[in-house]
Amino acid sequence: MVPGRDPSRHKQRPADFKSGRYQPLRLPVGGKWRQAERLPYNCAVTGRAARGSLASMRFAALLIAFVSAAFAAERPNVLLLVSDDLATTLGCYGFPAAKTPHLDALAARGVRFERAYCQFPHCNPSRSSFLTGLRPGTTRVTNNEDNLYTNLPGVMTLPRHFGEHGYATARCGKIFHLGVPSGEESMDDPQAWDFGEPFKSELPYPPKRVSEVKVTAGKKQGLPWQEIPCPDDDLVDGGHAKLAIEWLEQRDAGKPFFLAVGFHRPHLPLVAPAKYFDLYPLDSITLPDAPADDEADIPAPARNGAVPGYALSATPEQRRAAIRGYLATVSYMDAQAGRVLDAVQRLGLAENTIVIFTSDHGWHLGEHGLWHKRSLFEESARVPLIVSTPGMRTRGQTSAGLVELIDLFPTLCDLTGVPALATLQGKSLRLLLDDPRATLHDAAFTQARRGKDAEHWGRSVRTTRWRCTEWDEGRSGLELYDHDADPHEYTNLADRPEYATTLGELRALLRGLASNQ
Q1: Angle, to 10 degrees, between the axis of helix 316-346 and the axis of helix 101-108?
Q2: Beta bridge partners of 358
Q3: Rounded distance, CA 384 to CA 86, Å?
Q4: If you placed Cys at 276, which of 58, 254, 331, 393 could pair as Cys (CB 3.0 to 4.6 Å)?
């Protein structure tokens, strides 16, 4: 961390396109704007040693530049696409209502991970985790206000690590935590990027059209939406895609790139160009069957009313209208991801570019009476994850192996030849990319905080068959679900004597998680 600089509050100036090239990320220093300089990780050179080594440093820099240019064509590029608040509501994940042709096409040329899980279903905690390869118990980032760089001074992040190993790095949109729609409260890593898009508020939105769907929705009833009769680029995700494409067109072709594009949608509010709402007539939206007493066996911290700001009631029609709005924003995001993927193809980069698409966490659309995120049910903990690598022999296949988002950092190091940090707590996915039938993890872990003041701490373990969840180490409730018989987690088995042995074994895994963070 740069002394005296708060990464959560830095501001950026718009890029200057007049020169035909992007200006690097700029940061406020001493009241003036200057180009950011990457500082070596945990490295300091001072005094006579610094003066005496100037010539050797210049020679080393020239040598590195020469070697980097010579091998740039052989080093794969990285395109990281991240959606916000996206559950597995994609066509390629068997969600038939979703119209997501571009991500479905990516899955057809990559490996789709059926059982991928975030480590904390909340924006800042999840992104701080997978962008460092560290579990939330290590980062100690458990809400949107926690500052990763205060908790772990000098922490190495994924894009910064690639930048320090010869990659041109760029960020368009939301990668580290960023307030939506305000664009404020950024927890960005200012040393990670050669180019970073200026943060800005989405507001005000263009005027909306009057919807044909006449369903009353408000703060406590369903979810409101806005159908905007505008081009894609008039809303922020269209702008992120446009800027990412322009950066690709004008980048330094002598260096491999690490481009991260973070889309806001389907994060609330449910705002998208009207044409995406037109894809979803209200009468085409169906609701899954659920037991009338579904909440009866759910511990209090896991229930709908546990988090006041997230507690909602909704009639079936309000719920269908909310799902329609959510899917419209998913289709809008899919179209923007498709634009970036098409540009990679058009520019002749596809044969040497690793593509990863994922979300920071899942999202509820009324399951168990829940909306939003921050739960430890499957819908909130599970994320879409698609990985496509140059020349992969397993394209179009699906892996049912358990994976975690903290696996992304070591995976990208493994696939690119960038040295992996010894501190990383995930595992490379190369084994599953080569053989999707293989097993990498025996379990995946997710943690959360819920309650009026986020006072209840939950931790959950998912195996191929079971999900076990503890609230306050079991003092505030236990949950056990058998996914072979109950994939929607409707029946809590934690109190049934015949499952005591299974419950004990899974709780031992959770204790092991706590002791290893």
Answers
A1: 60
A2: 82, 385
A3: 8
A4: 331
Q: Sort 96 into a burial class: Cβ within 10 Å, 0-12 / 13-18 / 19+.
A: exposed
3-state helix, strand, coil in the chain (%, to 5): 35, 20, 45
Contacts of 7 (CB under 8 A, 6+ apart): 1, 147, 149, 186, 187, 188, 189, 190
Extract the tokens encoding 285. 């939206």
For the record, the structure tokens of 503 come out as: 């419950």
Dihedral sign, Cα of residue 461, residue 462, residue 465, residue 468 = positive
Residues annotated as catalytic (active site), given as ranges = 123, 177
Q: Which residues make Cβ contacts (< 8 Å) with residue 230, sequence separation at least 6?
A: 206, 273, 274
H/E stretch holding 98: none
Residue bearing tokens 């373990």:
461
pLDDT on residue 25: 41
Instruction: Work out whether strand 397-404 and strand 77-83 pair parallel, antiparallel, or are unpaired.
Output: unpaired
What DSSP line would sit under 197-244, residue for residue?
PPP---PSPPPPPPPS------SSBS--EEEE-S-GGGSHHHHHHHHH
DSSP 503: H
Range of lowest pLDDT (210-219, 292-301, 324-333): 210-219
Q: For the segment 94-106, what is each residue's pLDDT rounded down to a tens digit?
A: 999 999 999 999 9
Question: What's the Cα-to-Cα distance from 313 to each of 250, 303, 307, 317, 486, rounded to whole Å?
Answer: 49, 12, 13, 11, 25
Q: Are 180 and 202 in contact (CB under 8 A)?
A: yes
Which residues make beta-bridge pairs with 481? 467
Nearest to 501 by CA among 460, 458, 468: 468
Kindly state the DSSP code that residue 75 receives in the 8-state scheme.
S
Query: For residues 33 and 31, what is the distance between their CA atoms, to the nearest angstrom?
Result: 7
The DSSP output letter for 441 is B
**Alpha-carbon distance 235 to 267, whole Å?**
13
